[in-house]
Each structure stands twice: as C-alpha cells, then as structure tokens.
Amino acid sequence: MKSSCWPLGFSATGLSAGLSKKKNKKDMALFFSHLPAQGAALFTSNLAKAAPILLTEKKLTQHRGHVRAVVVNSGSANAATGVPGLNDAETSAAWVAKGLKVSPDDVWVASTGVIGTRINMAKYEHGVRGLIKNLGSSETNEGHLAAEAIMTTDTVPKIAEITFKLGGVPVHMWGCAKGSGMIHPVLRGPHGQLHATMLVFILTDASATTPVMQRALESVADRTFNCVSIDGDTSTNDFVSILANGAAGAPEITVPRGRHYNEFKAALMQICDQLTRKIALDGEGASKLVEVHVEGARSEKSARQMASVIASSPLVKTACHGADPNWGRVLAAMGRSGVHFDPTRIRIWLGDIPVCHAGVELPFSEAEAIRYLKNKEILIRVNLGLGHKKSRYLTCDFTGQYVGINAGYRT
Amino acid sequence: MKSSCWPLGFSATGLSAGLSKKKNKKDMALFFSHLPAQGAALFTSNLAKAAPILLTEKKLTQHRGHVRAVVVNSGSANAATGVPGLNDAETSAAWVAKGLKVSPDDVWVASTGVIGTRINMAKYEHGVRGLIKNLGSSETNEGHLAAEAIMTTDTVPKIAEITFKLGGVPVHMWGCAKGSGMIHPVLRGPHGQLHATMLVFILTDASATTPVMQRALESVADRTFNCVSIDGDTSTNDFVSILANGAAGAPEITVPRGRHYNEFKAALMQICDQLTRKIALDGEGASKLVEVHVEGARSEKSARQMASVIASSPLVKTACHGADPNWGRVLAAMGRSGVHFDPTRIRIWLGDIPVCHAGVELPFSEAEAIRYLKNKEILIRVNLGLGHKKSRYLTCDFTGQYVGINAGYRT
Questions:
Q1: pLDDT digits (tens, 9 = 90+) for A20-66
Q2: Is-catalytic flag, B163?
Q3: pTM given for the model
Q4: Which of A20, A60, A411, B242 could form a disulfide with B202, with the two C-beta atoms 3.0–4.6 Å apart?
Q5: Do B81 and A360 touch (CB under 8 A)?
C-alpha cells in the first residue's frame, strides 16, 4: 500500500502505543520533514479547544510557520484537561523534538479520542521512541500506517494523493484524514473565521510560504471540510495542516495569485475534496453518501447555510437511509434554515428526478425514486429561483448503527 | 377517561375519517365553544408554512380573535400544496361552519402528517359530518378522543388539565398536544418572534381578551414549547391555540398584569409545562426524558441558546441513551453553541453528581453515574460561572428506534 505520489523529503509512520482501548490498534503517528518546511493550519472554532490545539495554534503564529514534524495520538483528545493537559502537549512536542534533533518549536501536536481524560504519558513516551526508531535515518514512506493510527470510529483509513506540475516540475501532494463522528467542522485560521474531530495531515514537496498556504487552505477548506456534516457536532480537536518542504525543486510560491498559486490550489482542492468525500462516506454507521446542492440562491453564503441545515436534518438523513422519497422533509429543513426564499418558486430533485416544482409536488414514479435512493451515493438538489449562486454540502445517512456506536462509545 | 376539569361551554370529539394510513386510527378532531369565545395562537416560524397555518394566522389577525371552533386532521399536513391546498383549508372551515351554524371566519384549521400530499377532501367532508353528529346539541366532553385523533407517531395521547380560581371563581383549563418528531418548535405570534409538528389546543372557561391571552401564551410558550427539541427539525405546521369562552363567570382579564392575569398565566404555565414534558418523554423512539439546565449565564437568552445546542446534540442524546457519563460531549456542545464562556470556570453535573469543575474532570464514581443515567428522567446541569441567569431545555434520548420510525415513516 506504499504511495507512488509520496512527497520527497518526508517520512511518516504509525504504531500502537497502547493508548487506545482496542488492543493492538495503532494509535500514534508521526509526520517528519527531513528538510526545513513551511506549514499552514486550521483549527476548530469550538470554544472548548483541546490542549494540543491551543499549543499548535500558538506555535504556528509565533514561529512564522516553521515546522518539521507533527505528532498525533488517538485514544485521548487531551481536551478539558486544564494546565496539566497543556503540559502534556508541551512534553509530547519536546520528546519528539529531542528524538528528531529539531527545535520543540517546530513540532506540532494533535490528538483525538475521549474528552476529559489525561493521556497516559508513560505509554506516549514509549510510543514516541518507537515512532522515531521506525523512521530510521532515511525517508520512510509509511503514510498508510499513520493514516491507520489516527482512526477512531473510522472503519477505513482515508488517503488522497496527487502528482502535478508546478512550473513544469513534477511535485507530489499526499494527505490523510480521520473523521467519522462529531463531524461538523467549523475550521478557522489562527486569526480568521471558517468550520469534527476531523484531523487532516497534508504533505507536499512543493515550496510555498506560510501566508500563501494559509490563504489556499482556508479557501479550499471553506468548500470542502467546512461543507461536511456527519452529526452536526463540532469537535474540540479539529485540526487540518499542510507542510511543504520544497524538496521537489519547483519554483517557490510567494503570492496568492498567478499560475503557480492556482496550480497549487487546484491540487490542494483535489486532495481536500477526496478526503471530504471519504469522511462523509465513512460517517459513523453510514450506509451511503448524501450530497446536497442548493442552487439559484442570492449568495453562496446563504446557499451554504441552507445546504448545511438540509444536510444536518435527522429527518432528511433517516429518509435517505430508508430510501424514502419524502421530499417534504427537505422543504421543512429549508424553511427553518434562516435563509429567506419564496416557497412558490422552489424546485427539488432527487438525483435527476424532479419531485417538486413551484413549491408543490410533481407527479413522479415512487418506485423510480426509491430505486434511485438505494444507490450508494445520492444527490438532493434544490433550486431557489432567486439568483445564480450555489453551494453544496456532504453528509451521510442516519442509521441505527450510528446510535449503537455512540450509545456505547466510552463505557 | 372523561375529564373532571373540562371547561364549561365547550365540546370536543374525534373520529376516524380514513385520512390516516393506519386503519381505524382516529384522524379528525373538533373543538367547539357553544358561546362566543376569544382566541390566541402561535404559529411555526418555518418559512414553508402549511396552508392551514397561513389561513388561521389570517383569521386570527383579521377577526380580532373571535373564534368558535378548531378543526384538526392528521394524516396529511396540507403543506407544499399551493393554492389548491389553501382552497382545501378554506373549504374545511366552511364545512365546519355550516354544520355548526357559525361564521366561517370563526373556524380555525390545523393539520399534521405527510408534507406535499393533498387531503382527501371527500373523506374529510364525511369526517366533518361525523364530528358534528358526535357533538350533538349539548356539551360533549370527548376531549380524550380529540387528543387521540391528533396523534401521528405519538405513542400516547397527551392531556393536561387544571381547575383554579380567578377572583374567587373556579375556572377550568384543559389542553391536549401532539408531537413526537420534527419537534424543535420556534413559535411566534402573528406579529412577533418566538419558536415541530407540534399541535396544542387549550380550552378554558375563563374570560380574557385576545391581546391578553396572546401575551400570556407567547411568554409561557417561550419557556415551555420553545424549549423542547426532539430532533432539531422545526415543522411547517406547528400550531398552539387557546380559546376562552368566559362560561365560568369569572372576571374578564383585560390587561396583561395584576392578580387575575398572574393567576391565569400561572395556570397556563402549568398546562403548557405538563404538555411539554409529555412531548419530550414521547419523542420518537425515546426511552427517557432529558432535562438540560444552563445556569450562571450572563443572559437568559444565551443560557437558552446553549441549553438548546446541548439538548439537540446527537452525541449527548446517544450518550444519554447508552447511560454513558461522557460529559466531554456536553462540553463539546457548549463550545460550539455560539455562547461565549470561559472553559476554566465551568462546572457540570449529571443529576447531583459533579463530574467537571473548573473545566476539568472531577473524580466521580462511574458506576454511580451510570446508575443515575439509567433513570427514566435525567438532568444535565452546567454552570458557566459568569452571571445569575439561567434557562432549561427538554429533550429525549436518541435511540435506534428513532431511525427505524423515520426511515420508514412514509413508504
């Protein structure tokens, strides 16, 4: 399962340190750039931010985006752990820095798992030693092990990768994500405002400055990670990061415009879009991916707001599960979305099947609609007839398994 | 099951007109005041309002609250039915008016059921004849049949009643409600702004003007019906009404202050609070009632906002179902609520068991907490440590049955 798009100058690995309740489940990952790298990141906007989020956000702003490594654990979120939790996060970074012989300032930390419990730091320290030993001294492409280690209720590791050209030079971009429940990201940059525990780690051997990558990441995340909802719950630990080390030898991107920037951003969009779809499809208990398109809106913001409410509606999501063409639930969600529209102008489709025109039901084949809704990927499309702006949101169906997973997650 | 608090001068009944898919399920109800009565009402704030909502809202504002009868059907919501649906609602009122020999202006209409399908008006007309025949010419206390007829996915009829004194004169108040799914009411008056399909019909033989009752109803609903969520979905058909006919001979209440008003409002609060608890306990698939208290807030509004987000969180609701003392999910919901707080000042209790102090976990007995969470009614209490305002929200646990009910509701 080794990657053919693995970026030059990076190593990654994962192992089981015994932090997860599940025996032998990999629960620690390490990403490392052998060269100095620039990083950009987005953080949860949840007010109860986990310790590693607080620490890494500080590092990003204080050290101009210089970064060499990201260490991640699953099993404990290190959230609601107060000052001791912050100290644990600092200690994590220090151990990794020492082992890799880099500055602790250049080590970012992320965590996912149960909120409110401390990390077992003895096991963590042992894990750090193992990770560094795994890496060895040369480039170690074990990204697939890292992708496994960050999983919690995820059923599959999520990886996306691409090779593209920047100024004629082939560059590589590789990303992995975890996220299955508590997914309704509202990510923001260290200063801005954008929207799980969703964790995303992207590595590239392109060369770009932190401000440029920050801009690209915020823009892309706003149309990908910030447009996916599994259960409407925004995590305390959401974290998306990208590291670029320039090892490919392509021209450095220093301004957020122009051909090189656009090529970079397009590649990033492809990676983030793929990871977002994989997150939606692997939503806790999900049996299918549901894509919601809102078109004909006055603004992209209002379109997204409405798409978000439709995609978060338990009634819409259970209807998708039951393959019930109950489009009235879509209309009810639209009506409570806070977005103004004229009910007599709206149109609704299930896939290509028109079910509502000018606000009233169209005659449609129930059997055909049910057959469509039994697909693994389904589209709900609405047009407000007000303008030309649009947006989309990804989610999954709502199943009895979701309840089963979450009624028994911790105890 | 006849009521001992049945208000003088009112009749009510219910029957099966064949509108519901379930065979012999009662699906039409009629409430009738033998004397002229004053009414007040609240309507859903969903933008896609059902035809009966639009019609009744117009009647309330145009006819100064004069009302004699309310006719209700389940089986079809008469929502997203366009002009034909509005005509159906008008026809409904006309049939009832003719049968009862009152003005069509004085007949209110409400519906609940599937969105987007027309009512079978031939069956409806037959139903109206049956209802009027049932009422006969004298007072007919068959409120329990009406309470049954308005049920959809409800498992039990919901009735609350009280006898109290107004100026020394005994008066009666009786109410019934339906509501089990698509419950997150955002009710408002015909002009104002407050917050399922939740339907509530309250009858009293007290005497009060429409403006006074409107004020009392909005104030009480804001702390009862607008503080309950089953699934976060706000219906197109929510409707709460009160009719007062003065038959008890108590002094008329003409201003929204003073002892009589306060006595009236206290009685109304008791009825609405009881009905709200019954709705939460009978939430689709629910096995328990969950009460969320947010205290120590800067404003009641912010406390309610946070309580609403905690009570709507699928992760909190599934943890309640699984009796999992996973208070971190409460904290995560607080953090995404949009209400500002200091995570290091918060306290959280499960019932009387403190589980979090100053933002970090307190040592508590897991076994004791699990035992508590297995109760039929549970309380989650948080204190923000910022002020002295508070609010509460009612909900239920989230179960596999909820998904089962809603994945197969229509087809």
A1: 888 889 999 999 999 999 999 999 888 888 999 999 999 998 988 99
A2: no
A3: 0.83
A4: B242
A5: yes
